Amino acid sequence: MAKTIGVLTSGGDAPGMNAAVRAVTRAALAKGIKVYGILRGYNGLINGEVIELDSASVSGIIQRGGTCIYTARCLEFKTPEGVAKAKAKCDELGIEGIVVIGGDGSFRGAADLSAMGINCIGLPGTIDNDIQCTEYTIGFDTAMNTATEMIDKLRDTAQSHDRCTVVEVMGRNAGYIAVNVACAVGAEAVITLEEPYDLDMIIAEILEAKKHGKNHYIIVVAEGVGHSEEIAKTIGEKTGIESRATILGHVQRGGSPTVRDRVVATQMGCYAVELLEKGIGNRVVGMKNHQIYDVDIQEALSMKKPFQTDVYNAVNITAF
Length: 320
Ligand code: ADP
Ligand code: F6P
Prior knowledge:
By secondary structure, the chain is an alpha/beta fold. The chain has helices at 17-30, 42-47, 80-93, 104-115, 140-160, 176-185, 199-211, 228-239, 259-277, 297-302, 309-318; strands spanning 4-9, 34-38, 50-53, 97-102, 119-124, 164-169, 189-191, 217-222, 243-247, 283-288, 291-296. The longest helix is centred in the middle third of the chain and has 21 residues, at 140-160.
């Protein structure tokens, strides 16, 4: 049974990471396990930037966006020397297990450290929902809600000016945010990397709708597709409708987490501590069929995740 564990957040931040840190801390303390907050991802482990967390130190953070233990990317940790330094720091501090909250890259690091004898448990924390082994990632719901709220505002101004707004949402190379948000805002089209698209067809549909009196259009583009400015320019030129591109950007990563993100983060945090308590490492906690489960890290990294083709189709069926 682990007597001392650490918790860190790594890669891009996501709303709900604080709720996960809180859950890990409180669940561990309840079992008599000492907890270190490792600051700025793997950097904190290499440099010994850690703070002991007690119950009060995670008070009042469940509703806050960002991560109170900071996050970063750490190139040195990708080298064997970096991992060795991190292992030495764990030994010095008596850290036997670590909960790593982040994405695939962070889990690769967690696998390396597990191989050195430090039990690591990955928790999926990213707004992109692009982690193969889980239906859901902490931060996804909040980011979708933020993007939806922003696009509703864009719709107001597009409507007032008879415009077409092309809006780019985050997701790195994944279209999960794009397709769900497009559905929620009633977009006229969604463009993602997962499905082929034909801009001329979208333009033809816009022109047809214009004939019937429609005066405003929202086209949601996934970040991985890029070219939002060019898409807006082409639509403008070919339809005669004034078009604008808006890239929502990092606003989607901030803000108070939704109920779903707080609850999932809390459940996953508690689950991770149970694994560490049993001396289990090299696992990722995920969600399958709406249930929390765990899977070997290497297996998790080799899994394939289906795209939400049903939601994509629903956007197109209801677009006009
Ligand atoms: P995410 O975890 O969101 O996928 P990154 O891919 O940027 O984000 O990874 C976050 C951090 O995880 C990196 O800065 C690095 O410290 C560590 N990491 C990423 N890939 C590896 C790897 N192949 N081996 C070891 N550590 C890695
Ligand atoms: O993974 C989360 C994410 O916000 C992606 O959607 C985006 O591609 C990337 O991180 C942006 O990273 P950075 O914060 O380094 O600009």
